[in-house]
Amino acid sequence: MFGNRLHQIESVLLQLKNVDPHVGSLLRELSDINGALDEALIVAITDVRGVITYVNRKFCEMSQYKAEELIGQTHRIVNSGYHSKAFFRDMWRTIARGQIWRGEIRNRAKDGTYYWVDTIIVPCLDARGKPYQYISFRNVVTHRKEVEERLQTLLATMPDLVAFLDGEGRLLQANDALLHFVGLDRDMYRGRSIEELLSAEVSGKALLRDLKRGMDEAWERKTTQIVESWISTGEDDSSRVFERTLVPVLEVDGQKSGLVALYRDITEQKKMEWFLRRADKISAIAEMAAGIAHEIRNPLAAIRWSLEAMALRFPEAKKELCAMTDELARVDSIVGELLVLAKPADVQFEAVRVVDVLEVVCLLLQSQARKQKVKIQVVIQDHDLTVLGQPSHLKQLFLNLMKNALEAMRTGGELEIDIRNSNDDYVIVSMVDDGPGIPPEVLPRLGEPFFTTKPNGTGLGLMTCHKIVRDHGGSLHIANRKPHGTHVEVRLPILKDGMLKRSGKCASGNEVSIEALAAGGRSEAWGHGKMRA
């Protein structure tokens, strides 16, 4: 139709050429436009069903089909199979509404080779505002796409999230890592602004919102911005730490031209920094403890003996003197924890049955559990699970953890302890309580020196537990349990033949971590042996 109309117009102008001298110039202008279109652009016209009614010379040249082979066909004849059905559904929805559509399409020529075209489809509307045909203008961009694909291949090997935006904040290019994190289809994001993507059904809106805030700031300040950002992953409300680098691209006159965005996941690095900071604090405390703990304990013992003697001599003051003795016992307990944190001069490890240690601890806490109406249930899958350890330190480890659980259940509840053998040669001691759980903002700080949520706490208990577990080559995990409660898991290496022959301490250095993981309720594989308190 388009070509026929051009020829019809040209025929009319030829007839009028002798009547009006200006017609000749119009004819030349029309011929020049038609020639320019054939040289520069691929032009095609389809009806509302997508059937091709006109193609220009450039279309035939690029597709390698003759005009008569294309007329009456749809564009499926050059479909490369590269794009998804959703891509074309979006295109058809747009033009059927009478709106102009623009996008990049990879087509296949008759000989099987591929070529890329930057496409604009313009709906022609009737008097009712409904499309009656579509005119498409395509510019060949194969070379640029090949360069972009080489760049994309390079970016695909990068674990970082990378995006390139134009001066209007529209996404031009993004690597697979970013598309996967945000949940974008590779055919659907190009040319769209951050605002458009935020209104779409994507999973990574937290990152898009962060990018939008940072982009506005980078363009306003016109300098590279490097900051740390906590970004939600959308899975169980967990987050990861990213180092966000935004580089604004500016024109000579300072106007914004584009932006390069790079997000590097530094979550594990931040965890390691946290562990190192905590290790430094523990080392400092240990050094202090080794120097003063023994000096403190000797005067404390003398004061305690004096108070006991005074209680016998002055019975009327016994209540006050006993209170003072209790406070001295608390100070002595703190000194004991400091001594555990200090590097032992020569701690001899021996074979220790885990069940024996837990039995002693349960007996020690039996009275407190009954007062608080807490039922302690210990499930044993293997009574003979043995580790290489220091009995008194292991007793203090489980005593601290169980006391924390009891203190979380002031009005009663149940403490479930499961002792089992893992598949990787570790003894697992799992403790699950019915308490309120740990606030999310507190969970990452557990184990920090002197951090406590208890009115009379010292912040040394969990830190001591971490030190003991680390010295035994194990790991400690603390997590909230849904819908409420806390799940603590201690993993210790099972004693193997030959381990007792090794001198000195058990090799340590395994990672000890606190993870905000959602624990899943009761353990399913309960063993045959049970102890109750």
Topology diagram in text:
Layout: H1 2-16, H2 22-40, E1 42-47, E2 52-55, H3 57-63, H4 67-70, H5 85-96, E3 101-108, E4 114-125, E5 131-140, H6 142-156, E6 161-166, E7 171-174, H7 176-182, H8 194-198, H9 205-221, E8 225-232, E9 239-250, E10 256-265, H10 267-313, H11 318-341, E11 350-353, H12 354-371, E12 374-380, E13 386-389, H13 391-407, E14 413-421, E15 426-432, H14 461-471, E16 475-480, E17 486-493, E18 529-532
Helix pairs in contact: 1-2, 10-11, 11-14, 12-13, 13-14
GO molecular function: ATP binding; phosphorelay sensor kinase activity
EC number: 2.7.13.3
Domain PAC: 101-153, 225-278
Descriptive report:
Pfam families: HATPase_c, HisKA, PAS_3, PAS_4. Residues 291-496 form the Histidine kinase domain. Residues 43-74, 147-201 form the PAS domain. This is histidine kinase. There is one protein chain. This protein is an alpha+beta fold and 533 residues long. Helices cover 41% and strands 24% of the residues. The chain has 14 helices and 18 strands. It has helices at residues 2-16, 22-40, 57-63, 67-70, 85-96, 142-156, 176-182, 194-198, 205-221, 267-313, 318-341, 354-371, 391-407, 461-471; strands at 42-47, 52-55, 101-108, 114-125, 131-140, 161-166, 171-174, 225-232, 239-250, 256-265, 350-353, 374-380, 386-389, 413-421, 426-432, 475-480, 486-493, 529-532. A six-stranded mixed β-sheet has the order 16-17-15-14-12-18, with helices on one face. Strands 2-1-5-4-3 form a five-stranded antiparallel β-sheet, with helices on both faces. A hairpin with a 5-residue loop joins strand 3 and strand 4 (114-125). The longest helix is centred in the middle third of the chain and has 47 residues, at 267-313. Residues 502-533 have low confidence and may be disordered.
